[in-house]
Amino acid sequence: MSHAVQERPVAMAPRRSLAHARLPRWTPAAIAVGSVAAGIGTGIAAGWHSKIQWGMLAALFFVLATYAITTKVEGSRQAKDRVATSLVWVCFVLAVIPLLSLAWVTVSKGVEVLDGYFLTHSMNGVLDAEAGGGVYHALLGTIEQVGIATLIAAPIGLLTAVYLVEYGTGKLAKAVTFFVDVMTGIPSIVAGLFILSTWTLMLDFGPSGFAGAMALAILMMPVVVRSTEEMLKLVPNELREASLALGVPKWRTILKVVLPTAIGGITTGVMLAIARITGETAPVLLLVFGTKLINPNPFEGAQSSLPLYVYEQYQVGTDAAVARAWAAALVLIAFVMILNLVARGIARWKAPKTGR
After folding, report:
1. DSSP state, 280?
2. pLDDT tens digits, 211-252
3. Which of 14, 32, 150, 245 has a CA-to-CA distance to 5 between 20 and 30 Å?
4. How far is residue 323's CA from residue 316's CA, in Å, rounded to a whole number?
5. Whole-angstrom Cα distance, residue 67 to residue 27?
6. Terminal CA-to-CA distance of the chain, rounded, Å?
7. ∠240-241-244 over CA atoms, to 5°?
8. Contact predicate 290/316, CB 8 Å
9. Residue 145 CA neighbour count, 13 Å, CB half
10. Is the dihedral of CA 141, 297, 191, 287 positive or negative?
């Protein structure tokens, strides 16, 4: 007896597309505009007159709206990713706004007095309460003091970092690392008091730009050591091994392979250290004393500096003195920016060429 086999249709599973719904590219910008409007509107309705409060509300609305809209369209997993990106952007904006505000205020108030006369004249014969005078003596003192401090701290910091990375083992390396960590956190006034007690009181030297430069060098050394140490650790060991395998001595490998590879990061670290000490006032006030006269000799007699000049002029409190303080602050910012640009150029020039 034959049985007829009845074929039943096999139920096919519905096809699922791998392509999910995506938000348009302009969605973040639209959400940002809407969040700003909502933040301002909510702040005004609540009676808040601070723009900072409006900005915080706008940032909160931006993150919440991003999560809600993305969850609705793309799913919760993609929403978490977009929220993380949104938080990064919010933190970036919150960090940039004070910086831009400071730069804008400094430029707008500093350009009122800043001109060729201000840069080429000192305060000799000018009362602090009067208009006129210039910043040349302070600019010259800052250049000399920072330059001497860099000449002292940069080689010592670089060689210390090379020792810790390439040679340092045992108790000596641990002790050096410990003292570098301790020096990183010391206040600037402590460095000034150390030089004051040794150079001025014990050795009986008078105030000078060199004394201030030594205190600034103490503050600069740990920053140079730490930044250079991290940059040297990023150099691949394969480069060292390849050079040593060719019979090149270790000192020459460090000089010709390791340091050129890390020159960009080392230069950045040195510039960060210079930027830190350029704005220091306490060591200069203790050791350099300040003066209204032009003193081109950093090894004898009192000198001035830009941070000390800003402090002195702002302390006077008159309109003319405060205007000079803002102009000197603008000169200080421009000085640090020029140094950074020069350092970037040197680092790019000395960096190893990667192309053929």
Report:
1. -
2. 999 999 999 999 999 999 999 999 999 989 999 899 889 989
3. 14
4. 11
5. 12
6. 84
7. 85
8. no
9. 38
10. negative
